[in-house]
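Input:
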Amino acid sequence: MNLRKAITLFAVLLVSVVMLAACGGGDEEKESESASGAKTVKFMHLWPEGSSAQHYKVVNEIIADFEKENPDIKIDLEVLSNEQYKDKIKVLSTSDELPDVGMTWAAGYMEPYVKGNMYAPLDDIIESDLSDSFVSGTTEAFAVDGTTYGLPLELNISTIFYNKKIFDEYGLEEPQTLDELKEIVATLNENGVNPIALGNRDAWTGSMWYMYLANRLGGDEDVLTKAIEREGSFEDPALVQAADEVQKLVDEDSFVQGFNGLADEEAKSMFMGEQAAMYLIATWDLPNFTTNEDVPQEFRDSVGYFKFPTVDGKGDTNSYVGGPGVGLFVSENSDVKEEAKAFASYFVQQWGERAVTDVGIIPATKVNVDSLDLPQMYVDVLNDLNSATNITLYADVQMSADVAQVHLDMIQALFGGEITPEEFAKTQEDALAAE
Amino acid sequence: MNKVMSNKWIIFLYTFPALLLIAVLIVVPLILSGYFGLMDWDGIGAMEFIGLDNYIAALQDSKFWESTLHSFLLALFSAISLIGYLAVALILASKIKGANLLRKIYLIPMLLSSVAIAQLWIKIYNPSNGMLNSILMWFGVDNPPAWLADPNIVLYAIFIPIIWQYAGFYILIYYAALKNIPESLIEAAKIDGATPLQIALKIKVPLIMNVFKVTIVLSIVGSLKYFDLIYVMTSGGPNGASEVMASYMYKLAFSSYDFGYGSAIGFLLLIITLIVTVVIQKLTKSKDEIQY
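Output:
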């Protein structure tokens, strides 16, 4: 009996020791860090090797170059996937332990961080190191009350991609007006082809359709942005009419069946599986239509794109829905703020060309197209960007988080025919007014 | 062993680590979430004390009540499905051929992770390429429903995989309980001329009634706080048609950045679950203990 007692006691002690050791782990790590001589800049990004191999590689190359040029600064890297990254940043921010340099989204997403004094103003390095290097309109998305808190890395505009093979088969041409688009939809439906792939479970996808219609119907005035910024009303006739046009498109079976229950990924696979003729998405998907070797060559060759058509003769096709993706922030409470800013600035300067040639994304910095060997579709998009008259930032990014949620819910309800265009506008007007 | 168990220190040593874990990981966050519920907080910046405003807002929030209704519907369906599980367990336990193999087959969904199950059923429910609609069309149904897109259907469409997911778990519990019934009782009944149906309904089921009551509580409490499949398959959409309490709480706290309100909903979820548990235990309480 005594032996057994001794064993149980030992087991309990062992468990306690293990638990205590686990609790103490965090502190030890910190000590070893501060012990090393060089200054350490903590950098977190959201492009893990598994899902974003090219991004990951280029980031590592830039870090290696930076450390070579600045031997007294060491970059301590942490990589997480998108959703985990969002969660971790949120948790770290509550305990005031943000990385020195990290990634952030624009406008509504970053607002609470800026209000909580978590991000450092970056106007000084934009003026000194990076003057005139960003595409106009991109840094503005990372500004709150006139001060810029993020250095944009990506820029995306959305266009309608279409399958040339299907279009040729039924003798269809790129539409210039919404009526022409509707005729295409009718022809495709008669022939049993799904016209437009849409995964509206994510709702931001449907929101892009709504935003384009609102933009075209609103003419030169950006009525949607005005409504969100409270300079106008969401019950503006153009915004209500755009909602009505959405429901007309739905009634004419323009979108694949059950789109409200499909994720964007599923809609994309329908378009890429040649089960649907058109797909409105932003340029982040360009690699899938040009360079991605995992996608059959035959499909990549048959993809074209056209700008969102005009509606009732209104609107400018050089006005886009889009916006910058992620950008870099520097932590306001960083112990190595100067080094962190230097790294962020260096990163943005290096990122531009490598992003477009090695990763295949459109960077937010200006790129000289002529000197680069790029697929034709990239050249076209970059040229379109140069002649862009306006880029309207995604509504759910512009809005604060809780209004964005209302907007996304209303988009699903609108596309699902659960509400009238008037109710759609009124609910969002109320949500915006209540802020 | 008795000597060990009578020593108060040993009892303390045995229970303390688990107690500490529960306190740190469950009790403290529970109290904290009730406390956060009193705050106006976006989860990042400064908190502002606003008293019971969040709780009052929740009680007037039609979306909250809708999600509560959905959670209770799920609880109802789960509880009813227990009868089905019991029937399967009764058949499996009555020495039919291949019972062993079947038992393992029924357990397979339990072994899959929720996310894998969700992905599997998303594929099955796909309106144009899914297995279910392909079969329906093959049988001549012209316009099969878009299961996850139709607000009138989506909730029930998700209930099916949830119920399927837990089948193995409850069948296993019932199977074990049924195997525990002494063979002599069954033999005695047979000698008295009882039919297999009578044996099942009048002897076996009453004998495992205690287990059945425990599973009722388990399934209802589990349903009220259910989250995983709903989050992965529809994230509560379209427009809240498949929202349950837990997914609504998540959406408020992590998508709308309304941490205070989300915490208040979380705390209400706890209170509702507690009340339901107490009520069910009162309702199913029995006086006589079964002794074999």
